[in-house]
Queue: 4 jobs
Job 1
Amino acid sequence: MATADTGYLTPLKRRSSYGLLPPYMSELRVVLLGNSWSQRSSVVNFILGTNVFNTEEEPGRCLRVSGWVEEKHITLINTPNLLHPNMSDKELTEHVKTCVGYSKPGPHVFLLVLQPEDFTEEQKQRLQTILEHFSDQSFDHSLVLISTPREESPGLMEKVLESPPLIDMKKKCKFRNLKQKNLQHSELLRHLDKIVEEHSGDHVSCDVFEDKTYSSPADQSTKQKQTQKTVIDSFKAAGKCRKF
């Protein structure tokens, strides 16, 4: 199970009739971002077919879990709510650094799990800034997964889908998006696989951290602290720092 020091979870096994990865790849690394811990966690549980994450209790740190689909290895990195307006630049930078360390040598896909009725213009700007700090390639490797509204009523889904922040985010990701409601397991995996194929299996290179060795916040070197300051300054300069 997870430990307070590493955030790693015990690898799981799941078999499926759908082969997730091309034969030349040994692992798929996916980073989950968004504005709802509950929804991100339910997506991880959905992919792995087991309740590895408690959807009600957010741990406040990045967690990584690995599993198997048809003998193919998939690593999912779940993040705390990096879009929260009260999160400091320092906290945000630490979470991004941890996420980069957990996804080395780099993520293949960013899965953006968005609760549509709560996705504001401020959150959109913050999410874009976070993705840009991973890499300028991040949007090309991103898939938007739109959560089902908490309260369903006639026409509500259509209304929230027309919100400018959500439309802008989908545009940035070249309109790669799915709706959570009635989503089949194989369909989600197929879309992840498609992004991998589009980039010939290449992962995102997180340039801002590429020459740095990840360590826990309690064991940072002077050089890493200088890197942290650089990223914090960058955030400040940007102004924003089966079925379900």
Job 2
Amino acid sequence: MAGITRNPPAPPVDPAILAAFREAATATISDNLDRLPGAVGLRPFHRGGRLLGTALTVQVRAGDNLAIHQALEEARPGDVLMVDGGGDASRALVGDIMKAIAESRGVAGFVIDGAIRDVAAFAASDFPCYARAAIHRGPYKVGPGTINGPVSVGGWIVNPGDVVVGDADGVVTFPPALAPTLIEAVRAQDAREAEALRMIREGRYDGRYARSPG
């Protein structure tokens, strides 16, 4: 069995920051992160509901989930397991049992750059789960892996303690330090879009939104 590297956990994200982004759309957040991609190639497998929390990052060998099991042992309420599985879809990294463990510990959701299984259990649940694929084949449990280090999830670098937001369009993450300016930009764009939609409904739209910056 190969070793698992454990780094100290990042501080939890301030609840006030999470509250500010509770209704923010991932598309709008992404637009105001210079339209950088966020985690791409992943899709939601759960029934519905938003994802919001603090990144607990995990890097695993392709098809091996030992580090995920160990990360769940130290997960805090509100943590989101951001798993760098290298995009490998040959074996499932999580399923119904790990979902139940995560829920019992208050984990906010899974973001898996790899495969999952027990899709029906996720589809019947509001526990957020984003992944690249689904497959019935189970994982190895021999390691190695790393907990709380920088990871690449869907081609996007995620650091421990980043804010994680997910909705039907996908997942974005950002450092908490960006939150004050980012939420202002998000709210400003929401206001512009609401005004554009109102003008469209009233037959008065003149294309100004398409010409606006951002």
Job 3
Amino acid sequence: MSTNRGKANIIRLFNVTKRYGGKLALNNITLDIEPGEFIFISGPSGAGKSTLLKILYLAERVSEGQIVIDGINLARISSQRLPFLRRRFGMVFQDFKLIPNRTVFENVALVLKVAGKNPSYIKKKVMHVLRVTGMEKKANHLPPTLSGGEQQRVAVARAVVGEPSIILADEPTGSLDSESARRVLNLLLGYHQNGATILIASHNIAQMDCFSRGRNISLEDGKLKRISTILC
């Protein structure tokens, strides 16, 4: 199924297949995503949603096919350039992946430290992002002392602090109550309105009612089943 819509695309997948041993996790996926799109990737458990995000983030390599991100063919990227490409991404994990013995501030600041930013910039930028996500008052707290919703907001802050052009979120509300889930989704929507391309993997199609514009990419057994426009 081709999805080329005739405009410049920030992400392009050509006949992408991913195998784990003899099991097909993704099967011949061809997909185009334009800059600034809001995409829901839906499907049941085991459909390939998380695998799709992992190969975009280069946490996994494809078995067959090609991926082009912002004009860069991932099959040809050198190991030296890989960290610079990853800085274009912000990743929100389902299980947060916060460092438990580092404060909220330190968890978010780590992204900018790795990028070589100076301390004064880091402090200003991190506190700004924590204010936006409603976590400024918890800057000196350790992640284990926070609720699940608070930890996920810290994970969003960490994902966006480097001002990535693409934000990937893997089941970001899967373990949250409805109020916390809506708050996290609204945070992501805010960054989308500022120009970021957002891809959210979720088995909960009802969450898409929050958004008036976007597309739902439905996977089933690793195959691209359907692409539809989100209408509220």
Job 4
Amino acid sequence: MLPPLKLVKAGLRRTTETLACELARPGSTAPDWNELEWRLASAAAAAHGVAPLLCGYSTWQNMAWRRFLANQREHVEQRHQRIAELLRRIDAEARSAGVAIVALKGSALHAIGLYAPGERPMADIDLLVRESDAERTGKLLQALGYVESFTQWKHRTFKPAAGETVTGLGEHRDTPINIELHTRIQERLPISTVDITERIYPSQPVPGLNPYPSNGALMSHLLLHAAGNICGRSLRLLHLNDISLLATRMLASDWEVLWNERSGESPWWALPPLRMVARYYDNAVPSAVLDRIEPNCPVLLRALSRRQMLTQVSCSALWLNALPGIEWSRSVSEAGRCVRNRIRPTEEAKQERADMVRTQVWLQGQSWVTLRHGRRILTWLTGPVPRMDTLYVVRAALEHF
């Protein structure tokens, strides 16, 4: 049985914000939390992907907390070895096939040494290829023992032909390593698509795994990914930590990559994630960068981003949002389309939902997600609805201890 949801909501907010401050500025005195709050802190640390980092950063002396963090770091380190070996095999096969691939996000952050093995979990491996190489890469992955699970507008997902999902709190060494294959780097914010593929793919790629062309290109991707997650209320503290660490290596010329000379468009979408990073990590983001982006950000989004906290735009916010991301709309017509798509989902959205219900363990057996859309809207109108992903990790934390 779950405790009263009002206690869960307040506890998630309190623990999430405390963890964010501790990760950014470690060394604080251990909080005076009750047993429920320590369990919710474990849920938040797992959901935000920062438990292994806190193992090395936080000095809070709570025995169950320390065991949980150490266990998570051990699992992430052992899983990292599996991921590193798989990346080596993909590299070798791609070289042999003459296919150029860019290893994205977490793989790239590890490759440049921002994280040591065991510090940063990776849910899956993200790869970028040219559209013309997509089918060959798919066959390459199949030769490595993978099968295609489903396709979304952003990527194709491949999963191991053998292996079962491991349930429980946080990371597990035996969790199957999925691969997401991209031919574009893009996000819908929330309707119009921002595409930065050309600044991510190398101008002179070579067969095998390729790095990003520059730290600026990697930062562009991290910021766009974070923007998409803020828009969809699924930001993680790990995303902010990634950006803050990479920012320490950025030169003025690296920040210039955000402004695509070909399109001439300002990276307005980078303002909310950069402001969020600046809120928790002192001196991580140059004020000149924020000042240059701000005038081109939509007025409502610009105003909201000044005071938004991590909890509000992540799974630590317990209640579902009826219109997530509408403040990212750049026109009245786009806001109208956002509302219309929530009331009457597109066929693509319906298929995405069906794929999620079929493949995501936290949605298995949940009656809410299989209700007809009209019933879900009626439920929203009559009272707050808790997020299934949040309830899953809260239940896992309560059972874990």
